[in-house]
Amino acid sequence: MTDIAANPLNEPPKTVSRSLFQLALIRFRRNRAAMAGCVTLLLIALFSFLGPLFVPHTYDQVFPSYVTIPPSLQPRPDVSTLQEVMDGVAARARVKLEAFRVEGQAFTATISSDEPIDPRATRYFDRANEFRDTKVEATENDGRVLKLSGQVNREYFPFGTDSNGRDLLARVMLGGQISIAVGLLASLVSLGIGVLYGATSGYIGGRVDNVMMRFVEILYSLPFVFLVVVLVVFFGRSFVLIFLVIGAVEWLDMARIVRGQTLALKRREFVGAAQALGLTDWQIIRRHIIPNTIGPVIVFVTVVVPKVILLESFLSFLGLGVQAPLTSWGALISEGANNIQSAPWLLIFPSIFFVATLFSLNFVGDGLRDAFDPKDR
Amino acid sequence: MIAFVLRRLASAVPTLFIVVTISFFLMRFAPGGPFNLERPLPPATMENLVRTYQLDQPLWRQYATYVSNAVTGDFGPSYVYKDNSVAELIGKGLPYSMELGFYALLLALIGGVAMGTVAALRQNSALDFGIMSLATVGTTVPNFVVGPVLTLIFAIVLSWLPAGGWGDGSLRFLILPMIALALPQLAVFARLTRGSMIEALHADHIRTVRAYGLPSRVVVVTHAMRGAMLPVVSYLAPCAAALLTGSAVVETIFTIPGVGRYFVLGAINRDYTLVMGTVILIAIFVIVFNLLVDILYGLLDPRVRHD
Description:
The complex is a heterodimer.
Chain A: H1 2-6, H2 20-30, H3 32-50, H4 79-92, E1 96-103, E2 106-112, H5 122-127, E3 131-140, E4 145-152, H6 168-204, H7 206-221, H8 224-235, H9 239-265, H10 269-276, H11 281-292, H12 294-317, H13 329-338, H14 345-372
Antiparallel strand pairs in A: 1-2, 2-4, 3-4
Chain B: H1 2-29, H2 43-52, H3 59-71, H4 86-121, H5 126-140, H6 143-157, H7 171-201, H8 204-211, H9 216-244, H10 248-253, H11 260-269, H12 272-300
């Protein structure tokens, strides 16, 4: 008996014991909305990070002939435009265009003339921007009729192009990479600092709490723009710095919220019991206080992520964040907002991805909250 | 309680002092100055300006001068808005920002708490889903998008409301900027309320009052709400401070003569005294609202005690 009393964990229980984390995982898997959110997030991440491999254009490639064109699934230029160009070419080569067809990336044409045509006339076709690799396929009627084939330079812009003639699809993908990275890392930084700081401040209380919270007030009031400028001056502009700065600003709200919860939690019976059992402050904060603040914390994380992503665009606007031709969803959205009447697709496409990401994130957040809630067994 | 408030007010003085000190030097370490314009000024003009504003003095002396003047309520002249002192600029703009911010705060708080409560009471229903989707859109769509979209719909297409300006200060002019300002905060309040309301409704004392047969409205509004408001109140302090001191984006879009613009413009123009003015302004709001919130904690949850 003494053995067991001293070491109750040595007795293996009949059922398989599950850790808090395992339990949470099982409950999370059962939550359909949360799993759907996970899948969507994964798809958006794949789109952003692997998508560029499948898009022929790069994010900084400029197409001067396709500036601010609306999105379309049809390749550009379209057939009627090509027909016009072809007519022009034929006129320049002094031949008659008998037939012209475009199929995907290739074209075939039949030209005729009263005199035998010099096969070098194909150069006239290659000279047009739209056509290349023109070859003579067949000669008929002693060279008076030539059948030509060649390649058409046609580009697909399913999302349209921006005011510099860059493919919006490639830019949304790149923006996704940067925004997802900034959003995730900065939110994790703010989550980590905010929860630990708030819980410690609230739990210890008294003079420590007073000093710690005055420190938060000081950070709140510092002029954010100058904080960033000075950091950039000292450490140079870097990607890591951006999310460190954002994380360093966004943890303040989190700390206040966690502290508020902790103030009420620390008077609860289970905390008193833990104190009576002789747990150290750190153990109580880690095992009892922090898990019980999970509800508001997760809700607030889902709020911080969009804030962080948009804050990044503000930094970019000040010339301190990512700079063109690099971009982010926030930067794309603010660019789109400026062209809302003339080119609404510049706002719509990045917004769709941004909103979809945050919707799924909210479902995942709610799922995590339910899964980790220590009161709900 | 009175001792607590007095102690906190006393600790506000060193807090403000530290804020002023760090901001002052932080600002000066940043490159650029108020008179470094794109087209450089003639050296003689530059020298005169620098001497007039005492920018040629050593930094510590400028700091000492600033602090000793600020204590007496003199926050110096603005470098960019000539003929205006910082106190005048803020004094003129603040009432506009505060009035707009107050309405926006009211809308965000009441709307957010109401929506969050309804969503929590109908957890996982279509209504819950709808409200939370709306809240997600609210947090996601930035106000530099909401502003132009609202103007486009209500001012330009429907022409129901003015597109901007303060006008005679009547509600018609305030509605659109108020919505643009309140929407993101409303969404945060709704999400926070829903989460903690769901938890509060499962608490033992709620089951008890339900078992007593109290009407569901009383249970929710007077009993569950009290416990559920804790995270909402926590967020209220930074939110109120931010809303009441104006927003650069919303004030620019709707051409409102508030102080929100000065936060960004002051920093961009390196208008040192104006930046210091805005820093002190926001610090006072943050300190006051944090104090109010700490008092509210005790009223909402008697277990919270400030020793």
